[in-house]
Design brief:
about 375 residues, alpha+beta, Rossmann fold, 3 domains, 9-stranded antiparallel beta sheet, about 30% strand, globular, binds adenosine monophosphate
């Protein structure tokens, strides 16, 4: 019987997960180095500790019935040791091991029958030359582990650029990928239970700005065939990984074909829309999956546009909410972070649509975001300055 859930990582994904878990009657303990983390603020308790502090992680295991995580850059050893000591962890260390290493991830996807762009591991000048000859340019080089939001990534047009990236990476393992001239990027949120039940949501279409998700349009503007294939590939990966929980597969759509770019073994930014636009969010599905409950049909109730609210480094107080919320189709989520440095994910809003996703609706979402600004207001009662 599960009563208490442990979450490693105290960010916004953990927060939204904890809000659903609390609604469903569970106790939640978060572990994060930052006191009063976004998740810690809504959890019953927070253990303030580093992610590689195994004693603290073991304490989390000892005080909870199941442990999960909200980001993948955790020392795999911590999760393995929890499992070895008999604590229940979802998703498993095997899933984490595959998805935190881009080479292991792409190899696993390819071996499971999912299409991926040509890639090679490179860690020397010789490797780069061989990869360049086999795969060609332009190419994208990325650190194999630890990168996120476009960090640890180089787009290169020739061997000189690739060698410069290798040098800049300073000995980190890199993946060399063919540059994909994609038409769109889409993602599928999926959940799998321990019994093997699998549900996947309609794909979202994602627009990035300098590597960080900016907008998600739901449903993605792709053919029913592409949408169906993306869901089918995602569900196949869910079964192959034997993952328990919500997760996300990101795809490139190119020339009418799909290529898997990344698998995130946790709820995902591009699935925030599921909170307001579906009957059961990716966070609730995650609670259900890791607690052994049945999954819920992933039904889209409304089309939607999810808009990320990023910090701009111009202050820590969000202004313009009064204007934004004059629009009744908008649902606002703010993550409770005290500081809003440039490009930090501070919140998002979901704009619920009455009809299809159109250029006009996208423009309306952008205009709504333009109402918001970060200032240094002295008003300590304003949003976010907790
Ligand atoms: P990633 O960290 O792999 O999700 O990459 C971040 C973003 O970089 C993606 O969302 C794409 O916009 C872009 N990107 C990554 N890999 C490639 C590629 N092989 N070809 C073209 N664009 C890429």
């Amino acid at each position: 019987m599960i009563r208490t859930i442990g979450v490693i990582g105290g960010g916004q994904l953990g927060r939204m997960f904890a809000l659903d878990a609390k609604r469903m009657g569970y106790d939640v303990i978060a572990l994060d180095p930052q006191p009063r983390s976004p998740c810690g603020q809504v959890a019953d308790e927070q253990i303030v500790a580093q992610y590689d502090d195994f004693d603290a992680i073991e304490r989390l295991g000892a005080h909870t019935d199941v442990v999960t995580y909200e980001f993948e850059n955790i020392a795999i050893e911590s999760i393995r040791r929890l499992e070895e000591r008999g604590y229940s962890v979802s998703p498993s260390s095997l899933v984490l091991q595959i998805t935190q290493d881009r080479i292991a991830e792409k190899t696993f996807a390819r071996d499971s029958g999912a299409p991926v762009a040509d890639f090679a591991e490179v860690s020397s000048v010789g490797d780069v030359r061989a990869a360049g000859e086999r795969i060609g340019y332009p190419a994208v080089l990325k650190t194999v582990s630890g990168g996120y939001d476009g960090k640890g990534q180089w787009r290169v047009s020739d061997e000189r650029g690739a060698l410069a990236a290798l040098e800049e990476a300073g000995g980190a393992r890199l993946i060399f990928e063919r540059f994909v001239p994609f038409e769109r990027e889409i993602s599928v949120i999926c959940a799998r239970s321990a019994k093997g039940e699998i549900v996947s949501y309609p794909p979202a279409e994602n627009e990035h700005d300098a590597g960080i998700l900016s907008l998600s349009l739901v449903p993605a503007r792709v053919s029913p065939e592409i949408a169906g294939n993306a869901r089918e590939i995602t569900e196949r990966l869910a079964a192959a990984l034997e993952i328990v929980g919500s997760f996300c597969v990101e795809f490139f759509v190119t020339g009418g074909n799909l290529l898997v770019n990344e698998i995130a073994p946790r709820p995902h930014n591009s699935g925030h829309y599921t909170i307001d636009a579906t009957r059961c969010s990716q966070y609730e599905q995650h609670v259900r999956a890791i607690c052994g409950l049945p999954l819920s049909p992933p039904e889209l109730m409304r089309n939607a546009i999810m808009v990320n609210i990023l910090g701009t480094g111009t202050g820590n107080t969000l202004e313009g909410i009064d204007q934004l919320l004059k629009d009744p189709s908008i649902v606002l989520h703010v993550y409770g972070k005290r500081h809003a440095p440039n490009r930090r994910k501070m919140g998002h809003f979901t704009m619920l649509l009455d009809g299809p996703v159109t250029d006009r609706e996208i423009a309306r979402a952008r205009e709504a975001r333009a109402l918001l600004r970060w200032t240094d207001s002295a008003d300590e009662t304003a949003q976010v300055t907790v």
